[in-house]
C-alpha cells in the first residue's frame, strides 16, 4: 500500500470517528445510556457501539 493511500485511509478513519463522536455527544441521554449498557453487557469495543448507535439518529 502506498504512503498516500495509507494517509487517505487514516484521514477517513479519523473523520468517521470525529463524526461519530459529534453525534454521540449531541445524542439523547437515554440513547447514550442504552448504548453504554450494550457496551458493558457485550464487552464490545466502543467504536462498534458508536457505529451501531449512529444508526439510531
> Helix count?
3
How many separate domains? 1
Shape: elongated
What's the total count of β strands?
0
List segments where confidence is low: pLDDT < 50 over at least 5 consecutive residues.
none
Strand content: under 5%
Order of helices and strands: HHH
What is the share of helical residues?
Answer: over 70%
Mean pLDDT: 65
Structural class: mainly alpha
Report the sheet with the most strands, covering strand number, pairing sense and barrel closure.
none
Write down the Rg: 14 Å
List keywords for this structure.
mainly alpha
Structure report:
This protein has helices at residues 3-25, 29-42, 46-53. Helix 1 crosses helix 3 and helix 2 packs across helix 3. It is mainly alpha-helical. The protein is elongated, with a radius of gyration of 14 Å. It has one domain (3-53). The model has no long low-confidence stretch (mean pLDDT 65).
Would you summarize the structure shown here?
It is built from three helices and no strands.
What is the topology?
Blueprint: H1 3-25, H2 29-42, H3 46-53
Helix pairs in contact: 1-3, 2-3
Amino acid at each position: 500500500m502506498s504512503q498516500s493511500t495509507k494517509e487517505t485511509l487514516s484521514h477517513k478513519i479519523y473523520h468517521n470517528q470525529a463524526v461519530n463522536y459529534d453525534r454521540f455527544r449531541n445524542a439523547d441521554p437515554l440513547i447514550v445510556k442504552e448504548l453504554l449498557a450494550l457496551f458493558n453487557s457485550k464487552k464490545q469495543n466502543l467504536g462498534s457501539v458508536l457505529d451501531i448507535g449512529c444508526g439510531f439518529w
